[in-house]
Amino acid sequence: MYDRENAPVIWVNFLVLGLTFLAAITIVPVYGFAVGYDGLEWSVFLVMLAITGFSITVGYHRLWSHRAFKAHPAVRLFLAVFGAAALQNSILNWSADHRNHHKYVDDKKRDPYAATRGFWFSHIGWIIRDYKSGSRNFDHIKDLARDPICQFQHRFYIPLAILVNAGLPLAIGYWHGKLWGTFLLAGILRIVLNHHFTFFINSLAHIWGTRPYSTKDTSRDNPLLALVTYGEGYHNFHHSFQYDYRNGIKWYAYDPGKWIIHTLERLGLATELRRAPRLAIQKARLETQRAQAISHLNSNPALEHLRHSLEDAYKNAVTALEAWNQSRIAWMDQKQILLREKSRSIKGELDQFKIRYRDLKRSCRTAMDHWQQTHASLLNAAVA
Ligand SMILES: [Zn+2]
Ligand SMILES: [Zn+2]
User: Fold this and answer.
1) How far apart are CA 247 and CA 253, in angstroms?
2) Which CATH class is domain 278-383?
């Protein structure tokens, strides 16, 4: 599907990407030295950089491609309009490619930006040359093709992109009395940075980082990369649990997209936020560590004596995790029932559940610690 050798250059894409990049590294700094940029021009640049970037990550990616939550039509319209300003094609085209990326990840023929074809291909090469041999197949995005906002954005993509991308910075610049300075920062520099920041998710986030949740594909978790990809650096988690509205699941993980979606929910503008079950996430981590340890064991007969203790520690950890998780669910269910019945003995009964939950949590920690130690000592033995 995407394997045409000598694929023809798509000249519009080549010129837009090439000329904006050239302008960003020549005209933008020269104008800065010669004329200078003021605080308002930098502010418009930063605000537009954030809005167009999050329209891609929160809108194109999490909302439309993965249906990770539902959003109010006003939010969808806003994300569709400013998503067009990111110059990354319409929602329908973008999501068609992205769903194929997840479905066929790393397959050189069917993943539109397969990282297995190298950094440059996955970063920008797939956009510059027509590897898709013409139009995209929309069979797998029928849900989006029915959405009037997606239809509208697809139909009027070019005028919308020109209006918001160039028209808005020019209009603000005209009002501010610094037409070209505002256009160079909030138009040209912003579009180039936004392009490459989001392109890094297809390239670097499949090359640089760790694979805690799955080693079945090239996707990587990288907190540093999250800083320049609008929080999408936890790409290994994302490929393992693509329907989850979060990328960085720890509360402190830099994932502004997750915080924006949370805020929209609090404002009543987003609903049905989807999360992967905690047990499934923990089991995925354990299974990945186990697979890594087993491959060391299989390639090194001298470590064979550790196999039994490794499997034991793994089984104990899984059992403890499941028991703790079940008790958490039972506690929550019981709480709902007791609250509904307004039972007098509510406190006493809830306390019983709480004690059991805490006991299981403690034994789970012990089993997990034991697993981590066993796993680490096997890896140390393999290195030594
Ligand atoms: Zn990916
Ligand atoms: Zn995705």
Assistant:
1) 9
2) mainly alpha
Q: Yes or no: say if 215 and 105 are a contact pair by the CB < 8 Å rule.
A: no
Q: From the CA of 205, which ligand is nearest? A: 1
Distance 5 CA to ligand 1 centre (A): 23
Cβ(91)–Cβ(80) below 8 Å: yes
Give the C-alpha separation, 3 to 94, whole Å.
19
Ligand 1 mean position, distance from CA 105 (Å): 7
Quick one: CA torsion of 340, 343, 346, 350, rounded to 10 degrees?
A: -50
What distance in Å separates the CA atoms of residue 88 and residue 83, rounded to the nearest whole number?
Answer: 8
Helix, strand or coil for residue 234? strand
Q: How far is the CA of 202 from the centre of ligand 1 (A)?
A: 5
Give the residue extent of every domain in the chain: 11-271, 278-383
Ligand 1: centre distance to CA 218 (Å): 8
Which amino acid type is present at position 114? A
Residue type at 50 in one-letter notation: A
Of 72, 139, 102, the residue nearest 244 (C-alpha): 102
384 residues of the chain, pLDDT tens digit each:
555 567 888 899 999 999 999 999 999 999 999 999 999 999 999 999 999 999 999 999 999 999 999 999 999 999 999 999 999 999 999 999 999 999 999 999 899 999 999 999 999 999 998 876 556 778 889 899 999 999 999 999 999 999 999 999 999 999 999 999 999 999 999 999 999 999 999 999 999 999 999 999 999 999 999 999 999 999 999 999 999 999 999 999 999 999 999 999 999 999 999 999 989 999 999 999 999 888 888 888 777 878 888 888 899 989 988 888 888 887 778 777 777 776 666 677 777 778 888 888 888 888 888 888 888 888 887 777
Predicted TM-score (pTM) above 0.85: yes
CA 66 / ligand 2 centre spacing (Å): 7
Written as six digits, the tokens of 293 are 């340890």
- In the Cβ-directed half-sphere of 360, how many Cα atoms lie within 13 Å? 20
What is the distance in A from the centroid of ligand 1 to the CA of 153? Answer: 24
